[in-house]
């Protein structure tokens, strides 16, 4: 064999060996593929399961999984599901494969799948699992900061170049990074010309930039606004930023904030010390959003954070630290790259000449707009997949686009015309292979129902496009997204939402103008209406009007996040004005909106209603009045509803019920509340709550035991400076727009500061343990500062804008020995020897004045005297300083001291000395002083109610005297414009005066009690305080507002008359009043003869006589029918306890101090039974007046025979605490109820107890028996009643039973005598189910606590000329 042959054989052997080796490798690969496929399927399923669980948790309970993680999970899920389906389809192929199959290709596929699932698993373990574990903190009720981002993703295939400062986005990034190294904190992005220049995408893309992420590691947070945005949208965006960083509970608090300032203050503490980038997109100067609101957003920032916003308004650019201009893409290469990326069909260099020309033509049409480039590129991509060459798609698209130039009407601007052509061509492309009945152009026009920047769910689009199922809506939305006409956010299967760019939405509105838009609106409304509606919820108003047959009860329609917030707007736009009015007249709708959307939702709907009303002709005034009344009721109710949604029915009804007698619309509203309120509910009568539409517009409370130091009317915000019992310092801010309040604690933490007014540290407060409380305080006139004087001798100035951080602080001057003594006293728990007794601050916040108990006045110029180290001008007045007021510029100072001869001192700092005060101003024990803003006028109030005004600038110093109060003046204050001033006195009135004419402007506003007061800048509104309740009044309504007449005295006692159809009340004004128990109307005039408070009332069984006992030491008997006195009153009686009367009212028994007396009314004879009874013992009298019962001690009861003047038997013993008594109708049995929680029935003849005691859960305060003593009714201290069957020895009914009242009347045990000595309640709690206790009503802030008696709740205040009470409706 030759060498050539050997070489050939050897070569063939090598090839054969290689062949067999490959066969064996392929055989092994077949086996490996089978194993790998099974492992992959298992790993895919487990990973998807974990992702699904994370998604579910995120949507329900886990707030710490931010939107970035959520978006990434969605992307992984979509890709994993697609690959999993592919793997499953290849299972049979892999299992049946042999070494001759294409196993390598299969292996490559599975390796790609392996890489994907590995990446997904790695992301889950590093980003998702830790977030899930951290939610344990949230579940336990704690908020914990979590790094996160809520920046929405940019559309796919978007080209952004942040590496070069030539591009707009690159310039933006460079400016942001430069701000980090400087003190700049706000960067503005200005859009040149119109929209679509890519500023939004550039903002979103920052979240994916590594350099930006490194600089802001604690979160990149996004707030989306737009041309239709309102202030609540900014607040919502702030809340979402907090929520995305783990602040679940704080998010709910911020959502309740009703000003941007308030929301930012809440968020500032949360982001304190965090390095965050806040992105605010597309802010417009509309709907109350101003550059000032933008500056408020800067309150969230610290030295490490940055705010970037985009806008088309130049007004927002004023005052920003950096400004970046965005405009159309002038860089043709970058625009070309962006277009090609959106098309995803090759590179520009690969195109032939004709297609390159087509690309250039398309770029010319798009004019550099990123929005147009995105839509055009995406549409070109849809040309592919047909028989044409992919490259030829450019030429074909360009040809089609040019052909549209003459067939499409140009848009509203030269720029939008080409964009309209691009959109129109995209819609035609979608229609080419559409399977839907409607064309895509038609469905695109449906977007006209949306507002700018509005995100809507797929369920809404299903109704809008009228498709059979949600899957159809998904398919349509995906096709719109495929050509970049919408942005689609997917959540899980068939759950998605979309958003339409403003410019695209504008084109949709242009295409659907006129009647076509109305058709879309009506179609949408029609598809929301339930297919079948029952009549079970029909109310009186719906049954008696055109409503039920014509209109839809929208409160019954399930909300999808769109319909409830937009139905009034959509109805109005569709021309359905009658249905708008009908809907706003429905109590069910207004209550539902108040509960779910808050006052902002109610006011949004009412604003639309007022627009409708203004075109309603003759009904305009009446309808506007009704809508404003409902708005007022909602605003007054919201502060209660936000804490307890259940009582919205109680609140709204109580605010409008009086007006129901004057307005038919309001009457129908009240009737609907009565019919539709969930059971149980509390139905209030007139006067329980303050009525809507009156002078009072809002009320709220501070701490239960607090002292108000100062009030400040700041327009939309009311600030209250107050000190609780433990003497820390607090400020409560109440937002008047939406009824939200927030409280800051100041006094327990004082920031680091220099002794003589150095600016405090900007960091967290450092607690100084010796700063133990506050003596005095006041707000500045510029609303930026407040001053407080503390027990440790420090005077502190707080900066309001910074969230009440210390701005300056100083220590009251004292000698070294006195200062040592002061510190020793404070450390030992006492007070220092020298502290500020009162303080004031000038309107400009530069001058602080405070006085000490040693008679010195210190004037502290915060800014001018800091460097010199001599902070004070000191003046001596030799008496304790009681009050100050300072002109706005701090040049003139007014001081009130504890002196009867010269109570007023005045200084002018310009002349450097005291100003002589006219002697007439020093008269009659001055109690309060005030100085006008310009320092020109001084007003004072005196003990006799006299007001005096002195013009300091006039020659001769003339003094004007005014009279309008009858008792001690407590407070006077000027309005900011100096034209008006207010006065408040202990005669329970507040007056507003014209400062120039010295005359009263309105009738005095009658209030409950007296306290601090403040006036608005224009003098039209007054804020008052009494104890811990703050009220806001609109003085112009004091003369014109319709409302019930007021009596503000306290109710001390009530008694039922006859069978419970009437009620008698005894009041602190000395009057006895008779009321209809059902309607609440007063019967006749008040019975007025007592000169002091009525302490006890009783009514005879025949309801003809009323007995009243007063603190003036008299007992009177009245004819209940005529209101005349029956006999000469009984005088000389001491402090009353109880009284009782026989059936015909001829004999009365009463207790006072330790005495028990019996009065024979007809003869006038008084018999003293005992002088040694239990103090203020309860008494009872039999129906014939022959026997009485009283308690000689806590644990025993004595029955006394009046005629025989002796005890019937030995004392009845058994109780261990205070006892209440009642005879049976026939006098044979006596019922006793005690504080020991038991009720006992006694046989009067034998003195034996009948059966075992009946047991309550708490103290028994009233008992009543039927005629024979077989049935007993009793009430405990909570007002819960029980009906006992004496023979059976058990409770047969409770007051929670709907038949309670009727049963009492039937059995004759409804007669009731109730003394309001016990504390009343401000809440009523009842069971709505076997498991749930629900607060049904609360009336705090109304100063009208109630006393529950069974299913009736009596008010301790007469809120009106009608008897105020509540009924529990079951």
UniProtKB/TrEMBL annotation:
InterPro entries documented for this protein: Apaf_helical (IPR042197), NB-ARC (IPR002182), P-loop_NTPase (IPR027417), Quinoprotein_ADH-like_sf (IPR011047), WD40/YVTN_repeat-like_dom_sf (IPR015943), WD40_PAC1 (IPR020472), WD40_repeat_CS (IPR019775), WD40_rpt (IPR001680)
Key words, A-Z: Coiled coil, Repeat, WD repeat
Keyword field contains Repeat: yes
CDD domains: WD40
One Pfam family in the UniProt entry: NB-ARC
GO terms of molecular function: ADP binding
Stretches forming WD repeats: 778-808, 919-954, 962-994, 1044-1085, 1087-1128, 1221-1252
Coiled-coil regions, chain positions: 34-97
GO cellular component: cytosol
The NB-ARC domain, residue ranges: 189-320
Protein name: Vegetative incompatibility protein HET-E-1
